[in-house]
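tool_call: predict_structure(chain=1)
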Amino acid sequence: QFLDSYGLGRWIDLPESESYLWTHLAYHLVEAGRGDELWRLLLDFDWLQAKLAATDVNSLIADYDHLPGDSDLRLVQGAIRLSAHVLARDKTQLAGQLVGRLQTFQESGIQSMLQQAREWDGDLWLCPHAASLIPPGPLIRILEGHTSWVDAVAVTPDGRHAISGSWDNTLKVWDIESGEEIQTLTGHTSSVYAVAVTPDGKHAISGSDDNTLKVWDIESGEEIQTLTGHTSWVRAVAVTPDGKHAISGSGDNTLKVWDIESGEEIQTLTGHTSWVRAVTPDGRHAISGSGDNTLKVWDIESGEEIQTLTGHTSLVYVVAVTPDGRHAISGSGDNTLKVWDIESGKILVSFSGDAHFFACAISPDGKTIVAGDASGRVHFLRLMGA
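tool_result:
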């Protein structure tokens, strides 16, 4: 009855002044048992363009969540989400974005919508002749805003926000669901190379080419502390599980342990003979990777070096530790990943790739390793055997 009171033959004729219904029509159609009508709208290019013009791209994306089980709608939603950073600044590119991302999908509803898009007689636009843009799939969204390379990303424990560090000297806080930029954190005077988030999700710690670390309030964007002491760039930052201490690795060949609340330097860990570019703590220990081809295991409280892990024949770029704290995984310029027994310092297994390994992460069960290499490949490796 609420919807019928508008007396419209076509929802596309809804006056632009009806901002509430432009935003919430999908909800009311589903509540009224008119899901089929919503399905047709969400595959109607003219409606999509009108909805986008009347609201914004995130409102359009949200409409598809009301019919979650339809595969055609998932593809269209995925294409719009991938295009969100473009459509946020230029709504007239919807036709070109959909055609460029969905041409290879032969579903009749999608092909009919694309034909509508090709016939759109709005502003002058460029129509792709082939599928020239990334199709919907594993990549969900592109976050745009930095003006130079992005060298570091961390995610808050609740999974809602990402914090990125860039060579434009800033960090940005993003809403992962909407893709919106929430905060820009300014204060570093050179490139930001590393970022970590405290376990409570309230603070970010960044490391920079200006030789400092900074502690930030994520919600307000305020700079809380500047940690000074390194004499070269800081490319690695990690936070202990209790959230009290940060550990940094630097081009001055040292690691430093910091009290996050006071900003005080507690320990300097010396022993590497080249830069330290990777560090990960498990609470009592920190494990570092260095340009001297080694990893080292440190006692955080005493600053003592416990183990030196040797076996790589080139620079160690990345280190990760399994959730149980027993094993470390390292990636190197010798094109290998190695799994180490932390207590004994022994190599348990090696995996040889075709390029330098620059990134590595471990699944919560400690069994799956995800590693990125210099060729652009992402390797998913399952730790098998005893």
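agent: Residues 76 and 110 are 8 Å apart (CA to CA). Proceeding to next step.
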